[in-house]
Predict the structure.
Amino acid sequence: MTFGERVTILRKHRKLKQTELGELIGTSGDIVSKYERGTITPSIDVASKMAKALNVSLDHLIDGSPKDAIDLSEVPLALKQFDGLLPEDKAHVIAVIEAFSTKAKLQSLIG
């Protein structure tokens, strides 16, 4: 399934018109139509806005990844460990997470 097909399905599931989705992401319904047909590809910023408007993760919107791809039972332990870190180490962890997230988004748009 393509990016555009996922956008169409999610938009219709949420009972939004193309013009309404366009307003939510700061563009027109005509542009949304072009995204859905695959005529043009949105920037990462626009794709992120679409994911938020459609209430899904960017990964799910781009490649159909499940919304909860990680085992959520592990999150409390990770947060507890994170909380015990020094402030500068917390900043490094956040930077690494952001870097991997950006890498994954770029790879999914390219390939």
